[in-house]
Amino acid sequence: MATIKLNSGYDMPQVGFGLWKVDNNVCADTVYKAIKAGYRLFDGACDYGNEVEAGQGVARAIKEGIVKREELFIVSKLWNSFHDGDRVEPIAKKQLADWGLEYFDLYLIHFPVALAYVDPSVRYPPGWHYDGKSTIKRSNASIQETWTAMESLVEKGLTKSIGISNFQGQLIYDLLRYAKIRPATLQIEHHPYLVQPELIKLAKHEGIAVTAYSSFGPLSFLEFNMAHASAITPLLEETTITSLAQKYGKKPSQILLRWATQRGLAVIPKTLREENMKSNLDVTGWDLKQEDIDRISALDRNLRFNQPTNYFSTDDLWIFA
After folding, report:
1. 272's torsion region: left (phi>0), alpha (psi -120 to 50) or beta?
2. Which domains does the chain have, with CATH numbers?
3. What is the pTM of this model?
4. Which of 10, 196, 230, 274 has the most crowded Cβ, counting Cβ within 10 A?
């Protein structure tokens, strides 16, 4: 298993398994099968609503002796509703209890957006809306307040490393001004339609590892009725990708994942099919020619799917202005 050395000193598997939109009914079994297939990194989040089931899959694999806890790299994320400094540790402990774990290997700020606290006993996961329907209510918590609380999680042994997700350059530089513990990773939407070369260059310069999510582009977003997701050619069917798949004797999905890993990024693809679990893991032991990497990168359209403004009505957008 190829790994990436984090600035926190730990090795992170370069290929992991993403848990976004893995249905609760199949999540435990999916995690268990993925561990059997060879996955060691699992990328979860409060907002995914399936951490209890994911933990059940982990527990089953450990009980059967397939893997040891220390061989796994479990990632979770702090949701927007818990950015206030005094809310970070309690929710991290709840998430650990849901997973059935004593510590996370990596804990991320999910979005640089602070929303008003919602008690988990009222609604969990809380989602974007304060009332669970239509009202968006902000918190005044600063990123510095949240990050200071994240650092305390490391000091207390609740997570080994901390990082950020969906941050852009200006916010990263702001965070680095006061961070006592530098973010170990930056998780971003990254695919040939959204290459973000300058952001990746910035992270590399600052010693922050980059994890790419949504490696297959618009595929994961079609169900949200985003016009720009349905209007563009799916990456798995894009002619540059399919021709390279034929050239190298690989699946289009493998071409997309190798394009990222060969450039030093980590990836977290998701699939429910066991054959695809195995092929998605096989994306570090062979190389694309540089000219083919450049051909894929040239597909860039700066087309972003996973941003809050794509999910809400016009009346909600003031919160992100």
Report:
1. alpha
2. 3-320 (3.20.20.100)
3. 0.96
4. 196
